[in-house]
Amino acid sequence: MSVEGMNILHVAGNISYGVLEAGSSVDQLDIDIGNSSNIGFNYFHNKFGMPYDFLLKSSLSSGHSLFVAVKDTNKLLGFARFEQISEETERTYRGRTNVVNHSIHLLRSIEIHPAHRHVGIGRLLFAIAVNRLKTNVITMPDNSGAARFFKNKLGFIALNTKSSGLSPRYKGYLMLPYPRARSMLKIMAEDYPRMVMPELIGSYEALKFRRNMGKSITSEDISDFLTLFESSKELLDSKLEGEMNSFIRGFDFK
């Protein structure tokens, strides 16, 4: 079983990251709800008494962008909800159109299953989301721990309502400017390649080990590695990409 209506944007191991496009997709998710005898999602249930399927469906029906991390076929590990509050503006000069101001999205919430926190799933989910949205992001953390996460882990800064053009009602919010949002996924891949691209790194290290040990490497093994390499090339830093290209050139493909 897979989640219908989920547009998969990235796969890392047995975790798929994507955006849900229909409320019916929520019904297919396996959502652990936390209680006294079970670890699971609990923030919205405890604070607002809100069922999670209702929360996620309401987000979609309101036109919000709903990004999810799903383990195996349908186990929900995390979600992030974004609401667009400002559209991008463009200017055309001499037949060339450029974006003058990028859109602004409000991160309404991000929550990761308690059993899967502190391993990078939340950061990767967020990076994939903002890479897809191509936007500035603002948010208002509701506790000091969340504020530290947004500032220290994701690079948010204090929002200047005057320069952003937003209403004073957003005073006190944090903002992740578009230039940093745009590069976040690539930076994560450079800093944590094994987390972002586990299949590629695992294949590369296994093939290097086999070659160093004088063991045979089949054309199928190389083909599988090349497929992973080509699909992840845009996330590789120049050093690792150079190493892999050099490794590939060491094989005779005749």
UniProtKB/TrEMBL annotation:
Q: Which Pfam families match?
A: Acetyltransf_1
Domain of life assignment: Archaea
Give the matching Gene3D superfamilies: 3.40.630.30
UniProt KW keywords: Transferase
Task: Give the matching PROSITE patterns.
Answer: GNAT (PS51186)
Q: Domain N-acetyltransferase spans what residues? A: 29-189
- Which InterPro entries has this protein been placed in? Acyl_CoA_acyltransferase (IPR016181), GNAT_dom (IPR000182)
Q: Name one GO molecular function term.
A: acyltransferase activity, transferring groups other than amino-acyl groups
- Keyword Coiled coil assigned to the entry: answer is no
Q: Where is the signal peptide?
A: none
Spell out the protein name for this chain. Answer: Acetyltransferase (GNAT) family protein
Taxonomic source organism: Methanolobus vulcani
